[in-house]
Amino acid sequence: xxDITLIDTTLxxxxxxxxxxxxxxxxxxxxxxxxxxxxxxxxxxxxxxxHMAVAVRxxxxxxxxxxxAFRALAPQxxxxxxxxxxxxxxxxxxxxxxxxxxxxxxxxxxIARFAVMDPMNNVPAMLNMAEITRxxxxxxxxxxxxxxLSPMHDDAHWVExxxxxxxxxxxxxxxxxxxxxLISPERARTLFPALKAVAGAVPLEFHSHTTIGLxxxxxxxxxxxxxxxxxxxxxxxxxxGQPAMTSTIANLRDLGHRVDVDDAAVxxxxxxxxxxxxxxxxxxxxxxxxxxxxxxxxxPGGVMGTMIRQLKETKxxxxxxxxxxxxxxxxxxxxxxxxxxxxxxxxxxxxxxxxTGKERYETxxxxxxxxxxxxxxxxxxxxxxxxxxxxxxxxxxGELKDEAQMASLDELRARIxxxxxxxxxxxxxxxxxxxxxxxVAAGPARRGYDxxxxxxxxxxxxxxxxxxxxxxxxERPGFKLELNGGR
Length: 487
Fold this sequence. Notes:
Blueprint: E1 3-8, H1 10-19, H2 26-39, E2 43-47, H3 49-59, H4 63-73, E3 79-82, H5 96-108, E4 111-117, H6 123-135, E5 140-146, H7 155-167, E6 173-178, H8 185-199, E7 204-208, H9 215-222, E8 228-231, H10 245-254, E9 258-259, H11 263-280, H12 294-297, H13 301-313, H14 320-333, H15 343-356, H16 366-372, H17 385-392, H18 395-401, H19 409-416, H20 422-430, H21 433-442, H22 454-464, E10 471-476, E11 479-484
Parallel strand pairs: 1-2, 1-8, 1-9, 2-3, 3-4, 4-5, 5-6, 6-7
Antiparallel strand pairs: 10-11
């Protein structure tokens, strides 16, 4: 019997994986915050810099305000921020000065836990980021080791990475991040005991996706060695997201494990998000079907959806299987990058261009050129020499080699102006000014949400859009709606 804890991913990864990161706004999150605080989660996977940009761009909401308000309503549960390398919102490589500045603001506004991920699993880079987050005041620093499959990524490879990260003394925990949902129960049975044996006193977590239906089974195999699992409310779970918390709790208890959570609060949270998803027309899916070919191409669900849409728009959907075969080839030529943002997008885009163009690598996007130039780090395995030479010797590579890096904080302040708060200044330093202007003009975000009001609001919106309606009155027991002065 093992004591198992949960980290909730509904607001960040569940929302991102199944609802395009745009399904939830601030009011929706704040409405359920006190209930989530009662459940007993070890932490709440709350945001990334990309999600902060989504709040500004698509919701016209201040992500700092969202953070502070949620923290005030859920004071007992640590909020977690996932780093994605030396960048903040912008894909430009940021200075350590800017990263520390950003992390200090995150701590100030309510973030207590930092999950440190590097898209290349570069150990020195992760150790450096751990130092920056700790210096900025992070309460807990967690190594996020991103799993993948390739000829070199066997258990011994992951053991070596885990040992190096845990022996550094810079991390409080380590979580195995499986963005493709690639870890089968059989792999979990060998991998997690091996990792635990070298992790020493550093506890392990497991984060996976149900893209091909393996994660719920792998969780049960891993739980004894990685007794902290990442789950979502059922409506935001499954699909390409994490396993559902209710079924995971039930299955763990059936195996004899202890999961000390407030069951009534779990049920209340689950019911809330189920009603929200129904009211907002958000997908509510089960685990994906098992697809063995997925182990070869490893394209994440969101990238796969975008790729299929682009092929359909150009009436080339019949090329999908050819593109997926090309993804396998391109990934090998690029040195087997982990199929996680931004590398999954780079590999998929290049594969599609190779298939739809006149010849392979006839067109190479700038981000692919930057990857080959080493702007994102060094791949785990050498790149194909012919492909690397072709891209490096291009005219565009010469231009990008000399492109300016992100300015210093002093330079940015001189350019942007000193009249802004630190929080707004950082948004303006990393985002288009018109998007931040629109956020400011929109004013404070709403502070609550009731899914039962959605039909009424839709009715009001429809009625007020119609010309010639002078008076509308709708009554029923417990409800009265009256509108005057229609256009």
